[in-house]
Amino acid sequence: MNRKQAIKTIVASSTVLFSSLKGTSSVRLDHTSNTLKGNINHSACRWCYSGIALEELAAAGKEMGLKSIELLEPDEYTTVTDIGLTCAMANGSMIGIPNGFNHPDNHQKLKKDFFERLPVAADHGLTKMICFSGNHWDESGKKGLDYCARGLEPVVREAAKYGIVICMELLNSKVNHQGYQCDRTEWGVQLVDKLGLDNFKLLYDIYHMQVMEGDIIATITKYAQYMGHYHTGGVPGRNEIDETQELNYPAIMRAILATGYKGYVGQEFIPKDPAPLQSLKQGVLICDV
Length: 289
Description:
alpha/beta, TIM Barrel, 7 strands, single chain, 7-stranded parallel sheet, 10 helices, 41% helix
């Protein structure tokens, strides 16, 4: 059996698997239609489904209407592109979230990693790659902002040659990433302005920013031009985005669309339900406005 035949087999088996999951989930799913509206480009973050083989996840995702599986390594790109999906947000350097661009000691390693990954991503038609600020190391925080801009500049300029946007993720430092510097939207906005390059944006993680600052819709509306990508997650707990949590995701999605955003929205919640693909489809349908 060659690779394409194997993928067809996986797609078929994943369709059966996904169908078998319907009705087995403890999460009530009111939406039953497989037809999506087409206004939101749906994606899912790979790490949230690490217990499912990537080929199976991609095939099941395509069946439910996903267009992307994201946060992938270069050797994983072909797995999803062969199934007809993309990777809407590629992993950048794997030096670790605390070790970001805000410290000069990391710049050489980060530059090397990004310069190696950018052409591979471009060869697979990918257009966005994630980066991180790193954790605080100076009391004022100003050095971190300056060093982020200094370290990012050659990377972002190199990315522009390949048509790739570098996106720094906003993460909460209250619950999940203690000490992380890019933990407020306004800090990220300052960095975008300081760098002044069109292909550097923010990855606005709705879960993380609800934990840190709330006011999600107003923030998205105010800073729309700075946003390059969005992630979801239920608050509290970072689990399903259904009625068990506090955010109104349909309203948030409508606000995102109202800004003119045409990119992807990545589901990045950690499923509690024993049928994780059912939870994923539920999240897609909730966000499909």
